[in-house]
Write a structure and sequence with these properties.
Length: 368
C-alpha cells in the first residue's frame, strides 16, 4: 500500500575514500542502510547497544595481564564505568541500564578473567581450561610472544588505512605467532567464522600487507571463553575482497554524486536489526506485522501531555497501515515535538493504541 503522506528522504552519503569491514557487511545486507550509516543527518540513529558495550569493556582488558583478581576487578569496573558514561552520552536524556544489567556482562567478565589473571610467574590464577585448537590452528604461547621479529609488532587496535586500495580498519591484534604473521579479532559472543567475519579478517590482512609489505599467513577469531577459529590466508581471497570493496566504494560515490540511487532490500531478514527503520520509506512500505522486530510507527502529532510525571504523545498513525489509527505513547524521555509534525518512533512496547517508551526508544522527525 502506498503511503502518500510520507515524504521520502533518501540518505545522502558523503564521498567515501575507504571502506571498513563494518561498511562492507552493511552494504552486503542493504545499500540503503550503508547510505543512512554514512549520511551525517541520520548516522546518529545508530547508537551503541548493550552487547556492543560488553564487547568494548572486554576488548579493553582482554590483551592486558593482571597479577591478582582484585587488580582485574578494578580494571573491569573502571572500563565498565567508562563505557557506561559513553552510553549515557549517546542516549541522553534516556537512562541506559547500568553495567550489571547488560546481557552477558557477568559471564563475559568471568571468561575474560580466566584469560588474563596470572600470578607473577605467568600461571593462571583463575583456573582456565586448556585452550582448544582445531587441527591446523595455531595457539599463541609465551614463547610465540617472543617471536615477534618485525619492529613494532604486536600491533594492538592500530588504525590502518590505505587510500590507494580504499580500505580502512582497526585489527584487534597483529602478531607473529608460531612464526606466522597473524591478524586476530577478539569476540565476546559466538566465535563462528561467518562470511562477514572472514571478510573482516581479509580486509585487515590486506591493510597489514600494505603497511608491512608482507601478507599475513593466518587470520584468527579468538573468543573470551578461550575458543579460536582461524584460516590460512590465500592471495586470491584478498583479490576477491578488494574487488568487492572497490565496487561498493564506486557505487556509494556514484550515489554521493547523485548519479544513482542506493538499492533498498527491505525484508524480515534485513530490517529487524536496522536502526534506520524509522527514517526509511521502503521499510514502512513493506513492514508486515509478523516481522520480528521492535515496533515502528510514523504519524502526525495530535497532542502531548503529562500523566503524573510521565510525558505522553498522541499520534495519528500514517504507517504502517495495519496498526490502529491512533497511538498514545507514554514515557517519552525527550521533549515533545510540535503539534502537527510528521514524526516516527521505534522500539517501544505495545501493539495496541497505547505504547510505552523504553530507554532505547528512537524518534525521528520527517522532512516536510
Ligand atoms: S530499514 Fe530495511 S530497507 Fe531500510 S535501510 Fe534498513 S535494512 Fe534497508
Amino acid at each position: 500500500m502506498a503511503l502518500p503522506e510520507l515524504t521520502w528522504r533518501p540518505p545522502q552519503p558523503p564521498v567515501v575514500d575507504h571502506v571498513t569491514p563494518s561498511l562492507l557487511a552493511t552494504w552486503k545486507q542493504c545499500q540503503l542502510r550503508a547510505g543512512f550509516q554514512l549520511d551525517p543527518v541520520t548516522s546518529g540513529l545508530h547508537k551503541m547497544g548493550l552487547r556492543a558495550a560488553v564487547g568494548i569493556v572486554a576488548h579493553a582488558v582482554l590483551e592486558r595481564r593482571f597479577v591478582s583478581q582484585n587488580e582485574f576487578e578494578d580494571a573491569w569496573a573502571e572500563e565498565s564505568s567508562r563505557t557506561y558514561k559513553h552510553l549515557e552520552r549517546e542516549w541522553a536524556p534516556a537512562s541506559p541500564p547500568t553495567p550489571r544489567n547488560w546481557p552477558r556482562w557477568a559471564l563475559t567478565k568471568h571468561q575474560v578473567a580466566r584469560r588474563v589473571v596470572h600470578d607473577r610467574a605467568g600461571n593462571a590464577i583463575v583456573t582456565a581450561p586448556a585452550r582448544r585448537a582445531a587441527p591446523g590452528q595455531l595457539v599463541r604461547s609465551p614463547a610465540t610472544e617472543q617471536a615477534d621479529r618485525t619492529p613494532g609488532l604486536p600491533w594492538r587496535e592500530r588504525w590502518l588505512e590505505d587510500h590507494v586500495i580504499g580500505l580502512g580498519g582497526r585489527p584487534d591484534l597483529v602478531e607473529r605467532s608460531g612464526g606466522a604473521l597473524t591478524v586476530v579479532d577478539f569476540k565476546t559472543g559466538q566465535g563462528d567464522m561467518t562470511d562477514d567475519r572472514r571478510d573482516q579478517l581479509l580486509i585487515y590482512a590486506a591493510l597489514v600487507h600494505s603497511s608491512l609489505g608482507e601478507l599475513p599467513a593466518r587470520a584468527e577469531i579468538r573468543c573470551a571463553d578461550g575458543g579460536a577459529h582461524g584460516f590460512g590466508i590465500r592471495s586470491e581471497e584478498i583479490d576477491d575482497v578488494l574487488r568487492r570493496t572497490a565496487s561498493a566504494r564506486a557505487l556509494l560515490n556514484e550515489a554521493a554524486a547523485g548519479r544513482r540511487a542506493l538499492e533498498a532490500t527491505p525484508g524480515p531478514e534485513t530490517c529487524p536489526s536496522c536502526p534506520f527503520r524509522l527514517a526509511c520509506g521502503p521499510f514502512l512500505q513493506s513492514y508486515q506485522p509478523d516481522w520480528v522486530c521492535g515496533h515502528v510507527v510514523a504519524g502526525r502529532v495530535r497532542g502531548t501531555g503529562l500523566l503524573g510525571v510521565q510525558r505522553y504523545l498522541d499520534l495519528d498513525v500514517v504507517a504502517p497501515h495495519w496498526r490502529p489509527r491512533q497511538l498514545r505513547l507514554i514515557g517519552l524521555a525527550e521533549s515533545a515535538p510540535e503539534h502537527g509534525r510528521l514524526w516516527s518512533v521505534s522500539d517501544f512496547e505495545g501493539i495496541s493504541a497505547t505504547g510505552f517508551a523504553r530507554w532505547n526508544t528512537l524518534t525521528w522527525s520527517w522532512p516536510e
